[in-house]
């Protein structure tokens, strides 16, 4: 069988919500053995169904972020629970957490403690704003960080409320950042044998994502200036954005103004210079373009604009995205059978490897579904595992019991928070 790139590496995923679990899932997709270490009542995301999609035994939020993982349900606030985790750290390659400030130290799972157990450990600490500093205790929730990042004021109309992205943008880019950091740290360890502490925070992730925009401001000295029309990006010349047509919408990006004028029948564009008037007449260009595009259907405009060499495209809903022939060709979505949720279809992998492809080996686990299996691998005897189960230090869920949902966790307990930003 083809070996995946990270086959043989073990990741202990002690994170919650989206950014941490998403990063760990990416590692699992590449073949790492990802052990999701969660409270005995289950990770917070199990009980917070995005969009109200509850699922059967596992809601879709959790399902989407925790494939290719095994679940160990353990009470890390107990002495026995800490000992269990220490046994796992001895043979782990990566430890990933996004606890609130001070929680890792209180639990005894901070970097100095765990690196003493395993000096080769890559320890990833994720936070909302940084490990210290004036904002360390602020809630690092996605929307709040989008707002603080400045990104919202690069789109829309002057004077109107800024519009956030329609995705969990900060969570997603933080997950990708952590994923990159783990791979880089593992490469360093392969070369030197050294483990290390890796810190990733959401504020820096969304800030550095705006490399071009912020450099235009800091190095070019050009401030963000929204106009009276809903321009899609303050640092790109007009017309640039989405426009209503006779039967829908289309997206239009940086057309040559005389060419656009000939296609849509707007004579005022014919004598304009795109690189001059595209900036100085931004609102007027948007308004005149919008008036003209109302006169024909989306398909008619897409045909005419494309034939003229103008960059344009349709505005999809999710069903149209799923049905897109390029998406189908790429195999962007994956389907697999889950023991409790049935046939599952979700986005797949953002990378392709000819020799070591990413795969779905298992769906998202039930709470503690693999507790007994993982502890056996760690060297615990059946009697020791039974004792831990009986005293509540660890928990397990069998597939035959999957229809019974576990109770919602106490969000005041260590390590449980409504988002990564609370840490």
Outline:
By secondary structure, the chain is an alpha/beta fold. It is built from 17 helices and 12 strands. The relative contact order is 0.17.
Description:
- This protein is an alpha/beta fold.
- It folds into two domains: 10-209 and 352-422, Rossmann fold (3-Layer(aba) Sandwich); 249-314, no CATH class.
- It contains 17 helices and twelve strands.
- The strands form three sheets. The chain has a seven-stranded mixed sheet with strand order 6-5-4-1-2-3-12, sandwiched between helices. It has a three-stranded antiparallel sheet with strand order 7-8-9, with helices on one face.
- Strand 10 (333-338) and strand 11 (342-347) form a beta hairpin.
- The model is unreliable at 404-423 (pLDDT under 50).
- It comes from Kribbella aluminosa.
Percent in strands: 5-15%
Total strand segments: 12
| Name of the CATH homologous superfamily of the largest domain | Crotonobetainyl-coa:carnitine coa-transferase, domain 1
SS-based class: alpha/beta
Summed up, the domain count is 2
InterPro entries: CoA-transferase_III_domain, CoA-Trfase_fam_III, CoA-Trfase_III_dom3_sf, CoA-Trfase_III_dom_1_sf
Organism: Kribbella aluminosa
Protein name: Crotonobetainyl-CoA:carnitine CoA-transferase CaiB-like acyl-CoA transferase
Keywords: Transferase
């Amino acid at each position: 069988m083809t070996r995946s790139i990270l086959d043989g590496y073990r990741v202990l995923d002690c994170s919650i919500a989206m950014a941490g679990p998403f990063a760990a899932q990416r590692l699992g997709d590449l073949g790492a053995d990802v052990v999701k270490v969660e409270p005995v009542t289950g990770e917070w995301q199990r009980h917070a169904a995005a969009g109200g999609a509850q699922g059967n035994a596992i809601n879709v939020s959790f399902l989407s972020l925790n494939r290719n993982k095994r679940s160990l349900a353990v009470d890390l606030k107990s002495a026995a629970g800490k000992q269990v985790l220490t046994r796992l750290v001895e043979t782990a390659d990566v430890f990933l957490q996004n606890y609130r400030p001070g929680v890792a130290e209180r639990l005894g799972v901070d970097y100095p403690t765990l690196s003493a157990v395993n000096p080769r450990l890559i320890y990833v600490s994720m936070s909302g704003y940084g490990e210290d500093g004036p904002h360390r205790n602020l809630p690092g929730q996605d929307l709040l960080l989008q707002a603080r990042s400045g990104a919202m004021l690069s789109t829309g109309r002057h004077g109107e409320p800024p519009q956030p992205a329609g995705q969990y943008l900060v969570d997603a880019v933080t997950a990708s950042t952590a994923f990159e950091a783990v791979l880089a740290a593992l490469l360093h360890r392969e070369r030197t044998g050294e483990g290390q502490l890796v810190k990733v925070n959401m504020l820096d992730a969304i800030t550095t994502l705006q490399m071009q925009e912020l450099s235009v401001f800091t190095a070019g000295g050009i401030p963000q200036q929204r106009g009276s029309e809903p321009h899609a990006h303050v640092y790109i010349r007009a017309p640039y954005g989405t426009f209503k047509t006779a039967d829908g919408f289309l997206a239009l990006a940086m057309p040559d103004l005389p060419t656009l004028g000939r296609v849509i029948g707007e004579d005022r564009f014919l004598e304009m210079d795109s690189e001059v008037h595209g900036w100085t007449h931004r609102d007027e260009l948007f308004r005149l373009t919008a008036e003209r595009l109302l006169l024909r259907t989306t398909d008619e405009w897409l045909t005419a604009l494309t034939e003229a060499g103008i960059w344009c495209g349709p505005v999809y809903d999710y069903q149209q995205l799923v049905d897109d022939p390029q998406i189908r060709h790429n195999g962007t979505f994956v389907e697999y059978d889950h023991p409790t949720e049935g046939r599952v279809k979700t986005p797949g992998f953002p990378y392709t490897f000819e020799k070591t492809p990413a795969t779905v080996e298992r769906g998202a686990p039930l709470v503690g579904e693999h507790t007994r299996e993982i502890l056996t691998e760690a060297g615990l005897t059946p009697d020791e595992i039974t004792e831990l189960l009986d005293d509540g230090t660890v928990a397990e869920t069998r597939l035959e019991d999957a229809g019974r949902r576990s109770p919602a966790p106490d969000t005041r307990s260590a390590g449980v928070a409504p988002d990564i930003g609370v840490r």
